[in-house]
Design goal:
Bound molecules: adenosine-5'-triphosphate, magnesium ion
């Protein structure tokens, strides 16, 4: 039997112009911090932006933003996400709470379907999704459920990250999924190997984000975060998103 919630999902997402999944084959490369900063930066510029934390391995954008515990979604013919700073904010954390047990298999798919089918985003210019690392079955589920998903891929300058990312890129290409481009995060030198290799793959190199010691102290403070060198790098990274109207 087809899950009746699935048919509701495209209706729920129908008034969102661009859906951007911030993703990486590799863990710990900065997906959450970049997704959050990118969303804040677009929101500050006046775009209507939603941030959706779907990292079932450990949602963390509520910590990066400093979302207060008493700010909760409201039930009203579905779930209305709260607004915080410049963003409409929804996270799996509202679904799983403080449960320390990792989500598994069918639970993950079920939670994704549930959140996608109940959340009322309304009209948005951008929905930025903080994705779990890698391409698991649940990520493939998400790809299947969110028809207009586009991928913004994060890597670090390390060959250890980029080798894994290349596999993810090959898979996304094979599935004919749109890739906005590749962002090189935590850059500490001027090497251009990642830029070159990205372009050799026929993909767009969206730019780099410097490794910035100020980031840690800015976690939980959106204004401070946007003022770090990492936050300021969003001006460059968001360019292809805002020009593509
Ligand atoms: N440009 C940067 N400068 C300094 N620190 C950074 C930068 N980017 C990310 N970090 C730090 O690196 C760590 C990993 O970042 P983050 O949690 O965003 O990665 P992730 O890819 O979402 O990880 P996971 O795969 O676990 O979800 C965090 O402590 C974050 O603050
Ligand atoms: Mg993360």
């Amino acid at each position: 039997m087809v899950d009746p919630r699935i048919s509701v999902i495209s209706e729920r997402l129908s008034r969102i112009r661009q859906i951007i999944a911030v993703s990486s084959g590799k863990g710990g490369v900065g997906k959450s911090i970049v997704a959050t900063s990118l969303a804040l930066s677009l929101g500050k510029e006046g775009y209507r932006v939603g941030l959706f934390d779907l990292d079932f391995t450990g949602p963390s954008t509520h910590i990066i933003l400093g979302v207060p515990k008493d700010l909760q979604p409201k039930e009203e013919k579905g779930i209305v996400p709260p607004t915080f700073q410049y963003l409409t904010y929804m996270s799996l954390v509202y679904y799983v709470g403080d449960n320390p047990a990792p989500m598994r298999g069918a639970d993950i798919s079920n939670a994704l379907i549930e959140l996608l089918s109940v959340t009322q985003w309304g009209e948005l210019d951008f929905l930025i999704i903080d994705m779990p690392p890698g391409i698991s079955d649940a990520v493939l589920d998400l790809i299947r459920l969110v028809e207009r998903i586009q991928f913004l891929i994060i890597t670090t300058p390390s060959i250890l990250a980029f080798e894994v990312v290349k596999k993810q890129l090959a898979l996304l290409c094979e599935l004919k999924l749109p890739i906005v481009g590749v962002v090189e995060n935590m850059k500490i030198d001027k090497a251009n190997a990642i830029a070159e290799q990205t372009q050799n793959l026929g993909l767009k190199y969206l730019g780099f984000i410097p490794f910035d010691r100020e980031v840690e102290a800015a976690i939980g403070n959106p204004t401070k975060l946007l003022n770090t060198a990492m936050g300021k790098a969003m001006t460059q990274i968001k360019k292809p998103l805002v020009t593509k109207k």
